[in-house]
Design brief:
Elements (H helix, E strand, L loop, with lengths): L5 H4 L16 H50 L6 H25 L5 H15 L1 H9 L5 H20 L2 H4 L18 H18 L3 H8 L1 H10 L10
Helix pairs in contact: 2-3, 4-6, 4-8, 5-6, 5-8, 6-8
């Protein structure tokens, strides 16, 4: 349908030069071709609202994770007040915004769907193995979960950077110089995370590990039935 009026949708009217605005504009151009300005405006509004929702949601979740989970719980051991948490949350929001702007500029020419796939690859490497093993494997320990999460996160990020889509397309290195030949690191980084959790947990014979293993049956009952679950904590 877009090829019927190439001068409207393609650079200089030439199909070989690609869509105006790149491949990420395919849905917008198709909306214009199908429904004219009305459908184009509707799809544009939906896309804009979606971007706002995703950006604001991720910013809030990232800021709350840093201010409450890391700063208040890990670093301050709960010995802080809401004013300090709020200050850390504001600083984190600004930092996340700056990082997001620079990453957006660096990955401007990349396909959005592919970038989402990379984000899921990192998530499935850092989060999924930890959640899966801690809930379903009775011998999983805290040390194993932490080690597996760190290995999954670092390996997925590093393999993504040295892949052709980033190493060559974004960083401008010569074609064929990428150290990782595949587009997604998920298969390798997730496997590394699972293996790390298994090995570290098996080698962990500390008293804390033994205590965690002994508490697994009660945890399984709570996770499957909800019986014995504690009430909501105050924030």
């Amino acid at each position: 349908m877009l090829t019927q009026a190439p001068e409207l949708y393609y650079v200089d009217g030439d199909l070989a030069k690609g869509l105006k605005g790149g491949g990420n504009m395919a849905a917008i151009h198709l909306a214009n071709a199908v429904g004219g300005n009305v459908f184009l405006g509707f799809i544009s509004a939906v896309a804009f609202a979606t971007i706002l929702a995703v950006v604001s949601g991720l910013t809030l979740s990232g800021a709350s994770a840093v201010s409450h989970d890391l700063y208040a719980t890990v670093f301050k051991k709960g010995q802080t007040d809401s004013a300090h948490e709020l200050r850390v949350s504001k600083i984190t929001t600004i930092c996340l915004g700056i990082v997001a702007v620079f990453l957006g500029i660096a990955f401007e020419k990349q396909n959005v769907a592919y970038m989402v796939m990379l984000a899921f690859a990192i998530a499935c490497s850092a989060n999924f193995p930890v959640l899966f093993m801690s809930v379903l494997w009775k011998d999983c320990t805290t040390k194993g979960a932490v080690a597996g999460g760190v290995v999954g996160l670092l390996s997925s990020v590093i393999l993504t950077i040295v892949s052709a889509s980033v190493w060559e397309a974004v960083m401008g290195n010569p074609k064929g110089s990428a150290l990782f030949p595949y587009s997604s690191p998920g298969l390798f980084s997730m496997s590394a995370a699972f293996l790390t959790i298994y090995l570290v947990s098996k080698m962990d014979n500390s008293k804390q590990a033994q205590l965690e293993r002994s508490l697994y049956p009660a945890q399984k009952v709570r996770s499957e039935t909800g019986f014995g679950a504690a009430g909501a904590s105050g924030h």
